[in-house]
Amino acid sequence: MQIIKDKHIVDDTWQHISDDETIPAGDVTLSLARWQQEKHTLLHRAGQMGVRLGSTDDVAVLADDIKRLALIELVFADFADGRSFSQAWLLRERLGYSGELRAIGNYMPDQAFYLARVGVNAFQPEKFADLPVMLAKLNEFSVHYQRSVH
Amino acid sequence: MYQYNEIDQTLVDERVAQFRWQTEQFLRGELSEDRYRHLRLRNGIYIQTHAPMLRIAIPYGVFNSKQIRMLAHIARTYDKNYCHFTTRQNVQFNWPKLEQTPDILAELATVQMHAIQTSGNCMRNTTSDHLAGVCVDEIEDPRPYCEIIRQWTTLHPEFDYLPRKFKIAVSGALNDRAATQLHDIGLHLVKDEAGVIGFKVLVGGGLGRTPIIGKVIRPYLEQQHLLSYLEAILRVYNLFGRRDNKYKARIKILLKETGIEKFTALVEQEWQLIKDGRELSAERVEEIKAHFAPPAYDNNAADDKNFDQHLVKDNAFATWVKYNTTAHKIAGYKAVFISLKSPDAPPGDMTDAQLDAIAHLADSYSFGEVRSTHRQNLILADVHQGDLYGLWQQLDALTLATPNIGTATDMICCPGLDFCSLANSGTIGLAKEINEALDNMDYLHDIGEVKINMSGCMNGCAHQSVGHIGILGVDKKGVEWYQITLGGSSDNEAAIGERLGPSVAKDEVTKAISTILAVYVQQRLEDESFLDMFKRVGITPFKEQVYADN
User: Fold this and answer.
1) pLDDT at B419 over 80
2) N or C: which end of chain B has fewer CB within 10 A?
3) A107 touches chain B (CB under 8 A)
4) Residue A19 exposed, middle or buried by CB count within 10 Å (0-12, 13-18, 19+)
5) Model pLDDT for residues B134-173, shown as the tens digit of each residue
6) Chain B contacts of A113, Cβ < 8 Å?
7) Residue among B155, B238, B273 whose CB faces A86 most closely
């Protein structure tokens, strides 16, 4: 599986573990619920940790964990649900998250530019074939009226 | 008026290129109907009953002769030689071909126009007072702040996929002519005790299915904090607004369900966290204000004697001046309404020939600028009184001088069943019928100020719930019926109209309106207005007469 990260097409080296799977070695993402339940038992794990957020999740619950996380995935169930854009902004600006922030699920390449402006730096398109399109769309506008996240 | 700089022009050009690609992708079958729908709506394109409809933004209702000529060109080249002005000061074309819409947008971009965010669940065109900068009751010109908001709302990365559409209106005068209490956010320019300009912030007003009057959440906001406060409101709405039911998704429902105290606390809390470091600089405000500097007025305009002579000699001219012009802050000037409510044309419609002629008149008599109003008329805002007679004659020849501004035939009317796929009732035919019933100008003028607003469905595009007389088309088992409300207002003392009684059949509507007006004429005290009389007597006398035969 390939994704876009920092405007380059790269391999996804993470394993995305469902709630009933055993956590393997290596870098893994978990659902927010599982993360909250098991985070204390994962303190001395060797691999990097990541969390998947749905659009209705309150990002503030990650405030104390933010430095432990190397990847946060914003999962779009519906591209018209714009809450993920505010989640991204809050993670970067309010919680000071500096790890990888990745958009996955049902969203449009046409939204990638906006997502980048609110702090998303990695993109997994729905279809592998959309990778070059999405990459191009990150440069769709050369100007903007609003300031970007830091 | 505001002139684009390189950034503005580049943004609009790049948006056209983006939309062209999206449309081509859709036409090739590579972009789904659902996804393309969201993208095209954000570029002003609806699919209507007959064809796509393209809604073009006129930011806060201000445009110029060059842009009007472009609208005329588009009407001729891509449409059926006319366009329609809307209640949000925008303009619509009803017959473009979908595959040609990118070309139309590219042509518009050459004259600094666009259709960005004129529909869809995003921040829409900011509206304002159509007399901004020229009215006698102004506290501060709202247009520079509207422009600052226009830029901030345009392609905002965080707030382009909101729960529902979002509308902002700004008023800078003592009399609210921008219906700010009926917007998602209403801003009033006010002065604090030291005379410093700031904003009173209202939230949660709106029309549609659940008409609600907005509430003040901050009586005074320092102007440098304008954008951070808007950002706080929008972030709270984006995160907490309902997305499970489109009829409960507007911010007015969030405010109602959360309660004003808690909602205000959420906004204030968010704002405290972001306000520092993103203030509008005084230089930035001044830079935008410079775009709205007054034109080169003739200081001796009031010395002109021709105007008074024509008033005395020509009754028709005097009547037009009385109804279709209004006071100007500069002595010897008037703001002139161009009535788009001639009895022979659908309300708000203009032909390409009329557009070209208005462009010429704007250049000759009003420094090349035109305004659109939320009651679907146009304004030449800066006319020398010595030019009024000549202007009137030319407008009259164009059938744009019907002296009916503010009267019962100056109706707001949506396109209705004839064009709109949402509508369940006709409006244009009915407007014509009511117009014919009120064809006696003396009677119309005797009735005086009555605002009739008519919508073809619950979405309420014509603001029927705040019409002095509101008419709402409803569908009853495939038959068109109309619900009448009385006493609504979008002015300072905003009010939602009260229902008269059971809805009436289509062929009874004109009679009902005539009866309502007759009751008013019979029972008014001296020069009492329709709205004042309604407040005094209530709905009963009207109800008794309208339903007397049933």
Assistant:
1) no
2) C
3) no
4) exposed
5) 999 999 999 999 999 999 999 999 999 999 999 999 999 9
6) 157
7) B238
Mind telling me how many Å the CA of A43 is from chain B's nearest CA? 31
Spell out the domains of chain A, with CATH numbers in brackets: 48-141 (3.20.20.70)
User: Which residue type does B396 have?
Assistant: D
CB-CB neighbours of B353 under 10 Å: 14
Domains: count for chain B: 4
Residue B478 maps to a domain: yes
By CB atoms closer than 10 A (0-12, 13-18, 19+), residue B545 is: middle
pLDDT at B210: 86
- Predicted confidence band of residue B66 (pLDDT cuts 50, 70, 90): very high
Q: Tell me which of B257, B285, B313 is where a domain ends.
A: B285
Q: Is the pLDDT of residue B445 over 70?
A: yes
How is residue B279 annotated by DSSP?
A: P
Check residue B276 and give its pLDDT: 95
Residue B476, strand partner residues = B479
User: From the candidates B159, B161, B242, B274, which should be mutated to test the interface with A, based on the most A CB atoms within 10 A?
Assistant: B161
**ipTM of model over 0.90:** yes
Q: CB atoms < 10 A from the CB of B257, how many?
A: 13
Q: List, in sequence order, every residue forming a beta bridge with A16; answer none if it has no partner.
A: A29
Q: Give, as one character, the DSSP assignment of residue A94.
A: I
